Amino acid sequence: MINNIISLIAHLIIVGVSVVIVLIFIYIHETAPWILNYLKHAVIRLPLAIVLILLYVYTGVLLDTKSDKKYDFLAGSLIAVIGIGIWLFTFSITSKLSVPEEIKSEYWILFTFYYLPIALIFMFLGIPIPTSLFELITNFIPSLLIGMGLSYKRLKMQRK
Predict the structure, then answer these.
(1) String of DSSP letters for 44-110
(2) Alpha carbon distance 92, 142 (integer Å)
(3) CA gap 95, 81 in Å, rounded
(4) Nearest-angstrom CA–CA distance, 122 and 140
(5) From CA 58, how far away is CA 131, in angstroms rounded?
(6) Cα–Cα distance between 152 and 148 in angstroms, integer?
(7) How far apart are the first and last CA of the chain?
(8) What is the largest CA-CA distance in the chain?
(9) How do residues 66-79 score in pLDDT, each as one tens digit?
(10) What are phi and psi of 131, to 5 degrees?
């Protein structure tokens, strides 16, 4: 259970990092819009996506390995459960699946905020997010990445 709590805290920190990235992009857009032409290239976007992915993987490396290794990918399950809860709550209010309407809707702000790191990774990699159903499934990505980090830590420990 402690791994889940640490994972959730790390996810919230990564959300904060994502908010800072968005604020930097907004600041650049407002002060020097010509720089955005350079930020649209894959040379800039790919490293940003990799940094966000590695933050989740590194979170897994920081977790405790005392539990059985078959539970590695459940280390971030609290993140997924909270995300699914927010998604279900918001979807029950709006009952809409089209992304552009939902992002503009005040009901989806909490989910979009909670989901921001994954949305930024998709945006930086150029992967479209077609529906909210897809967003529901992608709630499991942080848990998967954290589990990969924990598995990597186990492999590294076995080699020593």
Answers:
(1) HHHHHHHHHHHHHHHHHHHS---S-GGGGGGTTHHHHHHHHHHHHHHHHHH---BHHHHHHSGGGHH
(2) 24
(3) 20
(4) 14
(5) 29
(6) 6
(7) 27
(8) 53
(9) 777 666 677 778 88
(10) -145, 170
Kindly report the pTM of this predicted structure: 0.81
What are the tens digits of pLDDT across the range 28-79? 878 877 777 777 777 888 998 899 999 989 988 888 777 776 666 777 788 8
| pLDDT for 131 | 64
| Six token digits for residue 41 | 């290239």
- Token digits of residue 60: 């897994």
Instruction: Determine phi and psi for 98, rounding to 5 degrees.
Output: -85, 125
d(CA 87, CA 55): 23
Element (H, E) at 39: helix 36-39
CB within 8 Å of 25: residues ≥ 6 apart: 36, 39
Nearest to 147 by CA among 62, 57, 81, 12: 57
Task: Give the DSSP letter of residue 115.
Answer: T
Predicted confidence (pLDDT) per residue in 88-132, tens digit: 887 777 766 554 554 556 767 787 788 888 888 888 888 877 666
